[in-house]
Amino acid sequence: MRLSRYFLPVSKETPADAQIASHRLMLRAGLIRQTSAGIYAWLPIGLRVLRKIEQIVREEQNRAGAVELLMPTIQSADLWRESGRYDAYGPEMLRFADRHDREMLYGPTNEEMITALFRDAAKSYRDLPRTLYHIQWKFRDEVRPRFGVMRGREFLMKDAYSFDLDEAGARASYDAMFVAYLRTFARMGLQAVPVRAPTGPIGGNLSHEFHILADTGESQLFYDAALEDVTREELLSADASTIARMTSLYAMEAEEHEKVTDCPVPAERLHTRRGIEVGHIFYFGTKYTEAMGMTVQGPDGQALYPQMGSYGIGVSRLVGGVIEASHDEAGIVWPEAIAPFKVGLINLRADDAACAAASDELYAKLETAGVEVLYDDRDERGGAKFAGMDVIGVPWQLIVGPKGLAAGVVELKNRKTGERQELSIEAALARLAG
Ligand code: 5CA
Question: Which of 4, 263, 273, 383 is the most exposed place for a label (fewest CB within 10 A)?
Fold first, then answer.
């Protein structure tokens, strides 16, 4: 992508209402613009990151055996009356009427809709188990939308729903999602801590929240220090034993921790930090299948209510969460797996024919090799170009200048370490396209 043709409104200002680093950086680096309180437009570079996160989430859901579909954002009030949640949900639900005065709502979650869809299609125990998911926009009329996309009103969520024959099956589905979550967050370069949670308005028996540790998190956590020692490799190869080990380690939100009378963790091993909730999973048994009259025929011919769970990931919240976990004074430092571009190609002298020709050629070759490149071909000062690339946080900067070019070299800078290296054009290409 040539920056001269792109839409990347980078701003030098630090917006006054942005209290945390990720919000400031998302505005400064041109990822998002607020259009109403808690509602954001995703600008091209923000959208690229959002899509990459979404794709990792999708791959791990598929790997866990979940099946993707897409449900609408708009739902009918009658559907929610079936579960009794239409009245229970409160002012966070955005309600409106269509031209025929039918009561509608913008979905804050989809338990009712998926149960209705499955109810119409599944007839026997052979239709179980199934886990279905979608990645769709939600609306919750939060009292205090804040921190940019972290607590928005409109936000992108991955929500999965499992249907099982019995409790043991439901636990297996829960565990499969648990593993998928550990892998999903690890692939994004995040260490997520599973925290035992009360089930709240979703209802049910068992629930875990997944938190990224960050000073700006909205929750205060108390947990066994051993949770910090779990390695990325361990998370990526997580299985039932990883879950058993991680869930046996103490981790609670402050409110729940305060209720615990004899904490099993000795004081020196009890860490406290703030956390950003990026995922939340629930096992709630037959709460919705019973309320909505969803049965299947069991192996013995008797009708039974399937056991359900639901599993959410805050896809848009993760964009902010990753930035909270990975930035420095100069700007964002994207983990390569979700970076909007892999390489920022900087032509230091757009008015120099040799520099322009060499940069154009590098750009063409990288693009041909399938490398995602943001090419700063604008007629701007070098300093502004460097600062811009630093804010955006592209993992590799490839710098073409007249002096180096005369000597047959370009400079390669690693955004994270700051390490710089002079390389021949061929060597730079081999490094980046490899
Ligand atoms: N139905 C269940 C699971 S599918 C559910 O809605 N769970 S939830 O309420 O915990 O939301 C799932 C995830 O969405 C949260 O863990 C969080 O990461 C994200 N989320 C929730 N509210 C917001 C919000 N206002 N802004 C951004 N992300 C949010």
Answer: 383
